[in-house]
Amino acid sequence: MATQKPQRSLAEVEDIILRKIFLVSLIDSMENDSRIVYLEMTAAEILSEGKELLLSRDLLERILIDRLSGQFPGAEPPFPYLLGCYRRACEEGKKITSIKDKTRQSEMASVVSQAKKLAVSYCRIHLGNPNMFPDNENINSANKTTVSPLLPLIFSEVSVSGLGGSSVGGGPGCPPGFLEEFFQDSDLDSLDPILKGLFEDLRGSVLKVSALGNFQEPLRGLLLLVTKFPNAAKALVNHPWWIPRGTYVNGRVIEMTSILGPFFHVSALPDHTIFKSEPDVGQQCFSEASTRRPADILSSFATIKTVMNNLYDDLEKVIRALLQKADTRESTIEYLAEVINKNSSRAHIQVDPLSCASSGMFINLSVVMLKLCEPFLDLNLTKRDRIDPKYVFHSTRLDLRGLTALHASSEEVVAWIDKDNPSKQMSDEEKRILQSQEATSSGSYSSGLSLLSNAKPMSSCGVKIKYNFICECFFMTARVLNLGLVKAFSDYKHLIQDLSRCENTLSSLKAMQEQAPSPQLELDIARLEKEIETYSQEKLCYDAQIMKDQELLRHALSFYRLMVVWLVGLVGGFKMPLPSSCPMEFACMPEHFVEDAMELLILASQIRDRENPLRVFPLDDFMNFVIMFMASPNYIRNPYLRSKMVEVLNCWIPHRSGLPETAALFEGHQLSLQYLVRNLLKLYVDIEFTGSHTQFYDKFNIRHNIAELLEYLWEVPSHRNAWRQIARKEEKGVYLNFLNFLINDSIYLLDESLNKILELKELEAEMSNTVEWERRPAQERQERTRLFHSQENIIRIDMKLANEDVGMLAFTSEEISAPFLLPEMVERVASMLNYFLLQLVGPQRRALRLTDPEKYEFRPKKLLKQIVDIYVHLARGDKENIFPSAISRDGRSYNEQLFTAAADVLRRIGEDGTVVQEFVELGAKAKAAASEAMDTEAALGDIPDEFLDPIQYTLMKDPVILPSSRITVDRPVIQRHLLSDNTDPFNRSHLTQDMLIPNTELKARIEEFIRSQELKKHGEGLRQQCKLSIAK
Predict the structure, then answer these.
(1) Which one in 102, 463, 681, 994 has a CA-CA gap of 20 to 30 Å to 860?
(2) Is 555 inside any structural domain?
C-alpha cells in the first residue's frame, strides 16, 4: 500500500505560488527554468534575520524591489516582467479554485490578489519614473523606445480585425483586468504623467493618417480610456495639449497639436501638401477614374463611407462621454468653442491653409455636432424654446459678435443689448468710432451690419449668464456647419468650376494644337491634363465623404429645419403679412444662419439620386420661411440672400427637381398660393439696386431664376389667377415696376446679343481666311481664338436670358395688357417692339445669319413670332386706340414697311393666319396714326419752348412741377423715369410720384394754344375752300 504524500504547509504552498508568479528563487539552482532569477543577496539577508528561505506576502515587496533593482543577465525589462507577473498571477488564481479546502483556497486567493496589486502598483511606479529601475534591454540601446508600453495593451483590448491596418506593438495581449486595476487608482497625481504620455502617444499614432490608415485602434483606445476610466477623462482635459495656448496658436495649430485635433483631422478630403495624410485617398481610390469601371468607383465610395461612419461614431462617443461627466463637461465645451473661434476665418472666400484647420476636421466636427443635436431635433421641435437668441451677444464662449446681422445695424445691436444692461451706455466717443467704422466698412452688405465688438458680452460688466446645453449646442453647431459643411459645399462648387474650366481650356488648346502645333501648347496640354487628374480625384473624394452621405445631409436638413422654425418664432410664427417692424431678436441674428440653410437646400435639391434626402423630408417649413422673407427687405436686408431663396424654389420646380413631392409645395401650399407670385414680382423689382458694384450684371442671373419660376407658375391656374389679380389691383404699383424692368432687360440683352453676333461673325471671317490667318503670329491667333470662344459664351448666355424675357412678355400680355398701355408705359413698349422688329426683319437681318444659330440659343423665327404676338395682344386690349399712335411716334425704329416684311416671314413659317391679319391691320392703323400725327404737328406750327417737355422735347399734355428743382415736365415722361430711378433727373434729389405738383396754369395755356392753333388751321381751311369756290 502506497504511503500518502504529506500535505504541504500553507507557507510552502504560498512560496511555490509566489515563485511561479514572480520567477524568483531564494535557493540557488532550485529551478531549471532559465527565466527564474536567484536573489542571492536577498537570501543572505533573510537568513541573517533568522527567517526561512520561503517567499511570503510579508517579504513580497522587498523581493520585488530587489528583482527590479538588480541587473541579472537575460532578465526581462521591468514593464514586461511586471505584466508577466500579473498574467501568471491570473493563471495561478484559476488553479486555486480547484483547492478543496476552502480555508486554504481563501488564503491562497488572498496571496494572488496581493501579488496582482503589487505588480500593478510597480507598473505605475515604473511608468511614472522610468529611470527608477534598470532596463537591461534598453540600457545600451541608441533607439530607446519612447512609446508607452500601455499602448499595445490598449490596442489589444480594442483591436478590430480587418479595419484600419495592423495593431501597434503586437505580443500576447493584455491580461484580463490589468487595465482596470491600473487606471482605477484614486490617486490622479500618480497616474497623471502616465496618462499624459499615453494621450500623446495616441495622438501621435494618428498624426497625418488618412481615412484609409490605421486610425481606428488609437481612436477606440482613446474612447476606452475616457468611457471606462474617470481618471483618464480628467487627465485628458487637464493635459496642456487639450487646448494649446500661446500667442501664435491658430486653427491649424489646434488641429495638429491638441490631443483630439489629429483624430478630427482623419479624412478622405484633400488637404494642403504640408499636412497631407497617408495613404493618399485620391491616388489609392480614384486615380485615372475615367478609365475605371463604375463598379470600382462605387466600391471605393462604399469603403470610404464605412470607415468614415466608424470615425464619426467613435468621435461622437468620445465627445459625448466627456460632456456627460460633470468634471470634464466645461473643458469639453471650451475646447469646441476654441476650435470654432480660432477658425473663424474659414468663412472667408480665400482660406489660409496654414492658419486654419482642414476641411476634413470641420466636416468631422460638423457630423459630431449634428449627432449631439439629435435629442432636440424631434419632428415637433419641442425643445426649441430653450434656445435663447441673446446667446449671440451675451455668451463669453463663442465670438459671434463680429458676424453680419440679418438686418440690424451695429448701433442698433448695441442699443438693444444695452436695454438689458443699463450699466453699459455708449459714450459719445464710442458712438463716433462706431459710425466711422460703419461709414468706412468695405462691402455692400457688411456696411452697418457687423455686430461689432462694442456689443460686449454681459460678463464684461460683471454678470455671467449660464446657458443650458441645448442652447450652447445649437449655436455651436450653427457655427461649425458654417465653417465646415457649408464651406465644403462652396469648395466643392469651386472645384467643379475649376475642373470644368480646365476641361474647356484643354479642349480649346487641343483645337489650337491641331491648327498650329507648338512645343509650348504641348506643355500647356500636359499641365492641364495633370491638373484635371488632380481635380477629378479631389472631386471624387468630396463625393465619397459628403455628397454620397445621405444620412449626413438629412441630419443637416433637420438642424436647419429647427433653425428656420426657431427664427420664424422670433417674429411671431408662420403667418402673413409680417409685422411692419422687425423684432430686434430676429434682426440681430447672424445672416449666415439663413444663408447656410439655403445653400444646403440648393445642394440637396441638385442630387440626382434615388436616395435624395429631400424625398422623405418635410419641406413645408422651409417653403413658409422662403415665402415670408424673400420679398421682405425690412427683415432681411441683403438682396443676394433673398435671391438665394428664389434659387431654392427654382430647384424645387417639379420638372427640374425630379421630385414629384415638390409639386405640392407650389400647387397646394396655402402661403404659396396667396403670396408667392406677389413676392417674386416684388423681388424682381428690388434686385435692380443691390448696392454692389456688380449689381448691373448680378441682376440678370437673379432675374433669370425668378423668370423661370414665374414661367412655371403661369401654367398653374391658381397662380395665374393670383397674377391677374395683382396686375389689376397694383397696376400702377409693383406690377408696373416689374414690367418696366422686364422691358429694360429685354432691350439690353437682345441688343447686346445681336451686336455680339456681328462681332463674332467678323472674328469668324478672320479665322476662315486661312492664308491670312496662318500669316499671323501664333500668340495673336491664340488670343483671337480665346476671344472668339469668350464671345460665343456671352452670346449664348445673353440670348438665353433675352429669350426668357421676351417669352414672358408674350405670354403675360395675352391676358394682362392694361399695364402695357398706360400713358407712362405705352410708348416705351412700342419703341421696344419696333426696335426688335427692325433687327429681325430690317436691312440688317442678313448680317445676323449664323451657320448654327441654335448653338447660341438664337431662334429668330420664334423670336419674331413672340414679338408679333405681343403687338397683337396689346392691340386686342387697346380699347382707347392709343397703341397705333405710340407705335408711329417712335422716330428711331418705326417703319411701316417692317410690318409688311414681318407678315411675309410669318406666312412663310406657317404662323396662324388670324394673328398675321391682326398684325397687318395694326400696321395699317399705325400708318394712319403717323399720317394724322404729321397733320397735327403741321397744324400746331412752332410750339413755344415753355410748352415742350425738357426731357423729350415733345408737347406736354399733363405738365407737373418737380418739387426740388422746380422744373416743369410732362407727367408720363417723369413717371417713366421714376419707374427706374426715384430721383429728380435735374438735381438727383429724392422724388416719388406723389410728390409731383400739377401745373394747372400751364396746362390750361397749352390746351388754349392747341385750341387756337386748331381754330386757326380750321379757318385757313375754310378760306382755302372759299377761294376754290370763287375760282370755279
Answers:
(1) 681
(2) no
